[in-house]
Amino acid sequence: MASRMLGLCRDCPPSSARSEFAKHITIATAVRLCQTVSDLEIDPMNRILPSKPLLALDPFSNIRTVSYHSHRKHQVRKHGTSSDTTHCEWHGQGDMALRTRTEHAHTCARPIRDSLVRMIVLHRACLLCYTCCFVYCILQFVNLWERSSRMRSMRWIAVLVATSFVVTVGLAQVPESAFDKDPWPASERGPVKVFILAGQSNMQGHAALRTLEYLIYNEETAAEYQQWKDRRGSWCERSDVWVWTTDGARYGNLRPGFGQNEFKLGPELGFGWVMGEHLDEQVLLIKTCWGGRSVKKDFLPPSAEMPSEDQLRQELDRRRKKKPDTTMDEMRQAYGQAYRDMITHVNEVRKNLKEYFPKYDEKRGCELAGLVFFQGWNDMVDRSQRQEKYVNYTKRLAALIRDVRKDLDAPNLPVIIGELGAGKRGDFQKAQAAVVDEPGMDNVKFVETRDFWEPEVEKMVDQGLWKGPDWARFY
């Protein structure tokens, strides 16, 4: 029956499935379908998909379909001179989306897409008609009983039965989460601890949510990652950790989906989770990060030295070859723009916390608790900086830390510098580590990330294993 309604049985046309459904629907079936509909979600391509792998809805398929969210065709994006595959490799986060299984996902999703839509619409219509008919019958009984003096006293029983039915059906529509206790309620202790997460695309986050879903539903990794989803298959949220990000000006409780867009995740997920467990106070993460930014230009701090007039003029000539109307003032304004935006966003969010997070208690206030700076790709591939072994990068980053502390009035602000973990440890990583030895760098730490890089996976990417017939071994 269920397979026919979903259009999975080829010898059963949709019309017969609809008639069969309408003929045999019962209250129990209606309630169960309410739960089924609540388990469905809409993906970026507006396809209705189950919150569990398609394998659960397609018992006739012998394809291990675990990539049901991979519906958007792989688009090659340039990152320097690298394609999207290399782009993921450089980030070290691994957009582990099962791109190679996209066609299989399409094969499984398309046959049931229209039938699912029809099923939901039909279910809602039938449930409404069924309720109306039931109430109508009860009212008719009430009218008959009112004509009889012997049964007039029992009319309220009919009203009670009708009301109970409507309430029962209504409760079936309420999400199960409405009855769940929040495991991480918003903290009411002390001031809100504010952490700034700044950088470029590394900090933005380009790891796909479908990668995390694969790890959750994979038997070998489920025990380690299953805490990211609740028993209903929805993403878990931490009410004791808030997130505000410049990517789309999104904000809310910590959950997967605060990466470069709502379908990706970044360092904020792991960092926020750990801070939420470690601190008793409410935590706020302010993400101020933009892809393709350098400290030499975009994040150039106010106290750092600007390029000479000759250097600016040469850059202007190069820029005008692509954009002839570029002016010298525009060139100068571009230097330090990301730094100024970072300071502006942090101050704006702190000033309007109540607007973004209504549960914020203004009496408790907020305080800056730390800065995490995860950046470096654009500076590392800069030929002129490579020739000088990134000596000036160290000085500029140290100046950035000093200026942030000054502009945000936080002289002892703790700062973490995240190592650019892709590739081998070379001069650039040494330049990052050398920042802690610069003057005024108290309470600044350099965190190595190279140990989390997997050379075996890197070799598989170079071999193109992820898109070949042995794709399963890659994942």
CATH class of the largest domain: Alpha Beta
Model regions low in confidence, pLDDT < 50 over at least 5 residues: 1-117
- Oligomeric composition of the shown chains: single chain
Total number of domains: 2
**Order of neighbouring strands in the sheet with most strands:** 6-5-8-3-9-10-11
Query: Architecture of the largest domain in CATH?
Result: 3-Layer(aba) Sandwich
How many angstroms does the end-to-end distance come to?
35 Å
- How many helices? 20
Structural class: alpha/beta
Provide an overview of this structure.
The protein has 475 residues and is α/β, with parallel strands linked by helices. The protein has 2 domains: 2-174, no CATH class; 192-301 and 336-474, Rossmann fold (3-Layer(aba) Sandwich), CATH 3.40.50. Helices cover 45% and strands 12% of the residues. The strands form 3 sheets. It has a 7-stranded mixed beta sheet with strand order 6-5-8-3-9-10-11, sandwiched between helices. The protein has a two-stranded antiparallel ribbon with strand order 1-2. Strands 4-7 form a two-stranded antiparallel sheet. Helix 5 (102-147) packs antiparallel against helix 6. The radius of gyration is 29 Å and the shape is globular. Residues 1-117 have low confidence and may be disordered.
How do you describe this structure in short?
By secondary structure, the protein is α/β, with parallel strands linked by helices. Helices cover 45% and strands 12% of the residues.
